[in-house]
Amino acid sequence: MKQATLQIKFDEEKLNAIKQYMGKKDADLQTELDDVMQKLYEKHVPAPVREYIESRDSRVQEKPKRPSRPSSTAAANNDSNTTV
Amino acid sequence: MRETELKILFPTEKLDALRFFMGKKELTVEQELKDYLHKTYEKVVPTHVREYVESKLDQASLQEETSEQRAQEQQPEPQRERQSRQTRRQREQAVAESATLSSQARQPEPPEEPEESQGISMSM
């Protein structure tokens, strides 16, 4: 699935303080923000819509896995050669 | 107050859906993330450190305000020009008004002229 970039403006000094004190607790702000986004998604987007989006995404991922034509024809030729 | 940009990657389709359903509740993703950052700042950063950081921010904002005031003080001329333009307009209006008044005052004069001439003729 394509990724979108969210941009938030926040006070630099405060952000540095958060990063510093989160680092002391072996926590990472970026992963925390990713978790927040996932929780927001699960909280606000209804389950059927989430299922729909995820099923669409899986279909899109499956599509490019089809084998290309030249290789299949070549394989068929090989099979015919072996049978004859 | 210096602000920095935080970038978060999230699947486009999911973000669209999230924006749509949050929009129904008049909420924005950005605002929710900012709220989260404010809460974690208050939760993770010790009180004394917060006091110090905020005092620095207050100083910075005060400096910005004073610099803005100085900048405004250094450019008072356009306002004066506007004021002078207004006074000019006022003057023009006043002149126009006085002109109309004087013309109105002059209007009753014509009937007086014959009287004067009559007076002259009488004296003759």
Description of the molecule:
The complex is a heterodimer of chains A (84) and B (124). Chain A has 84 residues and is mainly alpha-helical. Chain A has helices at 12-24, 29-44, 47-62, 69-83; one strand at residues 3-11. Helix content of chain A is 71%, strand content 11%. The two termini of chain A are 46 Å apart. Chain A contains 4 helices and 1 strand, in the order E-H-H-H-H. The mean pLDDT of chain A is 82. Chain A binds chain B through residues 1-15, 17-18, 21-22, 25, 29-30, 32-34, 36-37, 40-41, 44-46, 49-50, 53, 56-57, and chain B through 1-15, 17-18, 21-22, 25, 27, 29-30, 32-34, 36-37, 40-41, 44-46, 49-50, 53, 56-57. Strand 1 (3-11) of chain A pairs antiparallel with strand 1 (3-11) of chain B.
Topology (elements, then pairings):
The complex is a heterodimer of chains A (84) and B (124).
Chain A lengths: L2 E9 H13 L4 H16 L2 H16 L6 H15 L1
Chain B lengths: L2 E9 H13 L4 H16 L2 H28 L2 H30 L2 H15 L1
Attribute tags:
heterodimer; A: mainly alpha; B: mainly alpha; 82% helix; flat
Largest sheet of chain A: none
Structural category of chain B is: mainly alpha
Number of strands of chain A: 1
- What is the number of helical segments of chain B per DSSP (H or I, 4+ residues)? 5
> Structural class, from secondary structure content of chain A?
mainly alpha
> N-to-C terminal Cα separation of chain B, in Å?
94 Å
**What is the quaternary state of this protein?**
heterodimer
Runs of chain B in which pLDDT lies below 50 for 5 or more consecutive residues are: 111-119
Provide the β-strand percentage band of chain A: 5-15%
First CA to last CA of chain A: what distance? 46 Å
- Order of helical and strand elements of chain B: EHHHHH
SSE string of chain A, helices as H and strands as E: EHHHH
Number of helices of chain A: 4
